[in-house]
Design brief:
The chain has a single domain, classed as Four Helix Bundle (Hemerythrin (Met), subunit A), CATH 1.20.120. About 80% of the residues lie in helices and about 0% in strands. It has 6 helices and no strands. The longest helix has 28 residues. The protein starts with a helix and ends in a 10-residue tail after the last helix.
Length: about 180
Amino acid sequence: MSIPNIITLGRILLVPVIVWAIASSQMEIAFAVFIVAGVSDAVDGFLAKRFNMASELGALLDPLADKALLVSIYVALGIWGAVPRWLVILVVSRDIMIVGAVMISWLFGKPMPMKPLMVSKLNTVAQVAFAALVLASLGFGFTPVPYDLILMGFVTVLTLVSVSFYLVEWMRHMSTIEPHQPPA
């Protein structure tokens, strides 16, 4: 158990705290915890790379922590009414499709290499920025127009482009599977 992995596990443990804060209308707390989670993500990544502490466990836990955090925040904000539900459905559906495609590739004995695409990294940045803006505006009582609409547009477009790229890549990868021939 390396220090970056412990930090990542800590970030996963922050997920229910943020969901509680949003559900309890404690948006200042939700925003502060979100900032702590973001800083912890940067710190664990820095430590893993700078001090050669990268591990297989960390390679799995880090994106899991990021997705758990973002999906939970989007769902909580969607239920709270601060984010349009169609956007929540889009963000969550993208992640479900990607995880489902990875699981299917494993079931067929053809696991896909997990390499994030640049558009996926941009998508994550847009999702984080939008969530932070919404939490900050709710916590500190300001109206984020037009920045909320601009970021929501980026999240929408990048989510659609990202899932499209992943699905094309997955279909290309899976098309090399040999059909099962029944015994003669």
